[in-house]
Design brief:
By secondary structure, this protein is mainly α. It folds into two domains: 21-83, Fe,Mn superoxide dismutase (SOD) domain (Helix Hairpins), CATH 1.10.287.990; 95-199, 3-Layer(bab) Sandwich (minor pseudopilin epsh fold). The protein is 51% helix and 10% strand. It has eight helices and three strands, in the order H-H-H-H-H-E-E-E-H-H-H. A three-stranded antiparallel β-sheet has the order 2-1-3, with helices on both faces. Helix 1 (21-42) packs antiparallel against helix 3 (66-83), helix 2 (53-62) runs antiparallel to helix 3 (66-83) and helix 5 (108-121) packs antiparallel against helix 7. The longest helix has 22 residues, at 21-42. The radius of gyration is 16 Å and the shape is globular. The two termini are 30 Å apart. 36% of the residues are buried. It binds manganese (III) ion. Manganese (III) ion binds next to helix 1.
């Protein structure tokens, strides 16, 4: 199945000043596109892994097709990351998600601290996540490189890309400032709340 790069769900300019058009153009049109192109070259000689991108990612990992997993995984991660942000993001959290965060972390502030610490604590390249576990509890995790919660049987609700290319143009080496701004000004909470509702 050829993988396709979809357009961003908003204009390049619309996340500024928190994420610049220059960052989004490089990140989506160069970095994300490169993962899609590379993955499509790696399907040759690999048996059919599934009909959806999620199946391909999970089965490539299970089957030890690590080059394909890294590139298809990064395609999934980036597509998900774009959907985790919106213009004029941050702010009020839908009630179902707010309650789940309070039940699992004690308070929104405790969750925010843990999420930022996970992003800061991911040595080198990777991702931090808010996930729903099988027992219904929410948790914060971090993953290196292309790894993601799909391969750990968790439901991803929110992610932040903490690879340097994600923030270096706008924040230079200040990953903490990027993560704080992401939570406060960029997150699409309605998207996360909808995913939680569908997770049941
Ligand atoms: Mn990236």
């Amino acid at each position: 199945m050829p993988l396709e790069l979809s357009e961003l769900p908003y204009s390049y300019e619309s996340l500024a000043p928190y994420m610049s058009a220059e960052t989004l153009k490089y990140h989506h049109d160069k970095h994300h596109k490169a993962y899609v192109d590379k993955a499509n070259k790696l399907f040759d000689g690999i048996p059919h892994l599934g009909d959806t991108l999620e199946e391909v990612v999970i089965n490539a990992h299970k089957g030890g097709h690590m080059a394909l997993f890294n590139n298809a995984g990064q395609h999934w991660n980036h597509t998900f990351f774009w959907s985790c942000m919106k213009p004029k993001g941050g702010g009020k959290i839908p009630a179902n998600l707010e309650k789940a965060i309070q039940d699992s972390f004690g308070s929104f502030e405790a969750f925010r601290d843990e999420f930022i610490a996970a992003g800061l604590g991911q040595f080198g390249s990777g991702w931090c996540w808010l996930v729903a576990e099988k027992n219904g509890k929410l948790a914060v995790t971090k993953t290196p490189n292309a790894e993601n919660p799909l391969i750990s049987d968790q439901v991803p609700l929110l992610t932040c890309d903490v690879w340097e290319h994600s923030y270096y143009i706008d924040y230079r080496n200040e990953r903490a400032k990027f993560l704080e701004t992401f939570i406060d000004k960029l997150v699409n909470w309605e998207n996360a709340a909808g995913l939680l509702e569908r997770a049941g």
